[in-house]
Amino acid sequence: MGSTITLTWNVPDPDGAGPCTAATDQMNITVNNATVANAGPDQSTCGTTAVTLAANNISGGNWTGGTGTFSPNRNTANATYTPAASEIGTTITLTWNVPDPDGTGPCTAATDAMTVTVNANCCVITAGSISANQSICTNVDPALLSETAAATGSGTLTYRWERSTTSCSAGFNAIPGATSSTYDPPPGLTQTTYFRRVAINTAGSISCEAISNCVVITIISGPVVNAVSNLTYCVGATVPSVVFSSNIPGASIQWSRTAPIPDIGLIPVSAFGNVPSFIATNTTASPLVSTFTVVATNDGCAGASMHFTITVVPRTVVTLQLPFDTLNNNAGPITLNGGSPAGGTYSGTGVNSIGQLIPSSLLPGNYTVTYQYSLGAGCNGTALDRYTIIPRAARINIYPNPAPDGILTISATPEMVGAWVRVFNTAGQKVMEWKLAGRLTNYHFKWAAGIYIFDFTKENITERKLVLITR
Questions:
Q1: Domain limits at 413?
Q2: Looking at residue 299, which CATH number applies to its domain?
Q3: Is 109 in the same domain as 51?
Q4: Worst-scoring range by mean pLDDT, 110-119, 150-159, 272-281?
Q5: pLDDT surpasses 80 at 377
Q6: Are 282 and 314 in contact (CB under 8 A)?
């Protein structure tokens, strides 16, 4: 088929060896190819979603049937056919027509039909694709996630972006407000994050979804500066150099700080490397604080900032004025006060842990209270005040009694200051007399050992004490 053949008719010589000869004649038969039409397989589609036809490609062929659109035209064997809205919910027949190849010859034209079932209650969607994978430093703003192939659907398209910190296949959650065809991740990612786009097709009351490829934003963590504790120094102290380190050896370290007025010392407000040693300064009455921010960088990636403070504490003027100068040793506990600034601590003989003076625990004599106030960092200020413990309330007390080697103290009430003191031995002889000059006076008598009579006289008041002097 498809070729021309020649047939020859042969006639022999009728008189044998006579004058006549044999004769022949030829004819040609042209065998044309049969006309074949193949419209391709039956198909189905959803709504007005196009289908691609698959007829055999014969010159002059054309499609008939259908009220939809053929692209590029009805004469294309593999045209795409988009059903008309009126064809939704029906089955349409499309016929592929192949013409007679030999015109008026024996062959005839051929046709073949296929059907397209156009479903009404269905949903068709393709996800499209997004790009692109990224590798960025912590807290760097990622690039826009763009659409590289558009999603398609049989109805109205909407989008939902999702992310996961687990993998491309698990742990996805919707990103609030991310409903465009593209998505711009905000800065601040601290770990590798996976993104995908869900295309949603809605056709009437039916919707369907398709998930795009997964895009990975890999986070390259910057180096971490090892923590430095907050530091406090007293004014005038030598602040040692603050040496920084990182979990990545060789990382570049840069610091900056707030500078109070007046400043804490002669140091820059920012620099690379370590904080140099300096002399702490503070010309105010309050602590000065400088806050340091330290960041390490490696291969262009900066790590999280580390913060600490250096506080310079001023020295404080501390005073103490006790509200008493003399106490009887039978007085009850006294909560000490008079220290300035308030909030310090009291100490001394007879002072307990809660700042109370216990006079009954003390022998008569002179004592000192120490008041200490601290603003921290060893910036302590102290002040002292003295007071006297006298025996139980009496006009005259002499102690110790017996008086070793003639050393004794005479304490007197205010009314007896200025009294005459006359001392007699046991024979009645006056040994010495004088006027009592104060409430508490100390003596060292050189008299022989023995008992002496002390008479104290002032106006109409008389007191007598017996004292034993030992040697």
A1: 396-470
A2: 2.60.40.10
A3: yes
A4: 150-159
A5: no
A6: yes
